[in-house]
Amino acid sequence: MTPAISVSGLIKDFGPTRALDGLDLTVRTGEVHGFLGPNGAGKSTTIRVLLGLLRADGGSARMLGGDPWRDAAALHRRLAYVPGDVSLWPNLTGGEVIDLLGRLRGGLDQKRRARLLERFELDPRKKGRAYSKGNRQKVALVAALASDVELLILDEPTSGLDPLVDAVFRECVEEERGRRTVLLSSHVLAEVEALCDRVSIIRGGRTVETGTLAELRHLTRTSVTAELAAPPTGLAELPGVHGLEVRGTRVAFEVDTGHLDAALGALVGAGVRALTSRPPTLEELFLRHYRDQPPVAATR
Amino acid sequence: MSALVGTGALIRLALRRDRVLLPVWVVCLAGVTVATGSAVGELYGTAESRALLATTAGGNPAFLALLGPLHDSTTAGGLLAWRWGVFGSLLTALAAMSLVTRHTRAEEETGRLELLGATAIGRRAPLAAAVSVSALACALIGAACALGLVGMGEGVAGSVAFGLGFAAVGLVFTAVGAVTAQLSATARTANALAGGALGAAYLLRAVGDAAGERGPSWLTWLSPIGWFEQLRPFAQERWWVLPLALGLALALVTGAWVLVARRDLGGGLLPTRPGAARAPRSLGSALGLAWRLQRGMLLGWALGMFVLGGVYGAVARGVEEMLTSNPLLAQLIARMGGSGALVDVYLASILGVVGLFSAVYAVQAALRPRSEEIALRAEPVLATPVRRTRWVAGHLLFATIGNAVVLAAAGLGAGLVHGLRVGDVGGQVARLVGAALVHAPAAWVVAGLALALFGLAPKLVPACWAVLVLLLVLGQLGPLLQLDRWAMDLSPFTHVPEVPGAEVSATPLVWLTVVAAALAAVGLLGFRRRDVG
Question: Where in this chain does the entry annotate a coiled-coil region (chain B) (predicted)?
Fold first, then answer.
């Protein structure tokens, strides 16, 4: 099956600044794909290129089997988009905006619209300017989730939502899994960890990591702290062990997941009294990428 | 006072943001004032020509309605106050109120003020800063005009009164802008309300000035623009008029001062009611959205232009009456084509002004896509199957057909009132609606230019407003300044037949329409190819 989105070597310049610098992204049909990166990494720029709002300066992008720039109108019939910064018309009510966007996309499911309004506890009778940021976000979410489309493009959809609504959002995405393809841009790691089948991490307009969470964890380190019977020997010389701290019989270190076996062997040799090990969180993965590597390109 | 903390910093911020806009306003207004002053002085170089002008212009209700009374024709300054006073006041007022809105409500609407408001900025500081900057602009405009006139060799007292007069009108509309910015929650509405007040001020004095001895000439006293006339620069200045303007400005600013503390940041005082939970059937396409966004402005403009047409139309009969009371003049006119022809010349000239105003509407309507784009509201619409060209076309419909509606409303107002007074409603309505509509292709050209900029160089879009001011100056002062033919020909309005009265030939209208269509097409093509956002 062709992927829903396939982007390779994408380049986009804004004057002298390069926002995208050879970005790659593949989103398989039916998956929930996390699109991670710090502010200014180029997430929104990539999404705008995919929506045909910006024209790429290089590389290739395909979406739903078409060209995002040339076939924009036809492709837009099959997707719904929630912008990161939702701006509503001050004199249109939330309900009117939901209906308008739905109709422009070719109709929306009335039952689902009603159910979503209820679940998100959104009053559709308020005028655009009377909504808070979170409520504006809800309007865009309801409009997107209630339409009958195969691809959802969500740009930091939960910014401004309170934890209760955030939970509702996660439920909704969970229900969509397998039925629609979702591209979820975010810098909220817990959200991506909870929702996404696969993740792409970008930085400075380039993809630095992509794969399933399991695959990414494989690349990273496990944190180990242990209370030993005797000071450890040979631990420091083992390949894959980082940040070793030894205080008497207490040790703390990180170990590449591939070398876990040898490191544990060294601990057992010294006699283990207590052991805690933590699998790497996405957070650590993320931090490592942004702490260890200098930015590769100017960011927007 | 803690409510004013940070005013100084905000003033500096505003001056930094307007470092181009402010000098442009000051230099342009003072420049046009001085240029017009010397041109009008040269044009009426002899005492005889000035005396003749005094008898014709002074008693002619049409001139009175358009320009106000000519108090003293013996000096160039006196002629300038008559020829340019009302329009110069209008432009100063426009500059002042748009400055205030720009630094108060527009900042609040975009949320930038919230960013500032959370720092050590008092509740009233933004208002105080905006009013100060605008007052400074008015003072500079007044001072530059006064200095320029003194430099021309005009009397010091008259020059100072002239400058103070502009500054006073500017101050009043600074204060009007300060109040409307508190009332409504959007800058667009605040500007519309202040613009309505400005239009009312223009019309009140038009009616009052043209009313004659027995008519309601006191109406002029209700208008801040009328106060400029009553100040009588270069004609035994009546300085006591100035405190009227200062008093009103102070009262209005005090009102805004009280209001700003009574409302929430971002909120207005005009109530927002809950609306419909479902969209009406009409709101389901790009055109439906354009209609929803533009209908209020169209309705407001159509109403305003209908009233303006009516006021101008009411004066037309007076042109004839004046002629019958002055047999010598009537004979002269009869030889030139009869009094009917003179009324037609008057009607044609007011419809010229109407045509220019309609171009302001056309540009506003044509630039709506740009403001939608800036406000990030274009993105969600263009991420649906709506094509870019179709999205713009919806708004373009208002710049073209909407412009025709606005013009027709003015023609209808003029035709109804004039028709009632001469006993030929049907005939006059048909004639004047037709004559008004002739200006549509010229307004379309300006709208086309706006669209071309939108498509090719969106950052230059504000230049459209400079073009409109230029067209107003060309149209009002071009013949007076004795500009070269080619300069006059730059304005699309130069090519519009002067109807009623003149022959209407289709050629220039077709050409204007072709040029407008070409500009619009360039704009649409450019927008299809460029980045959005």
Answer: none
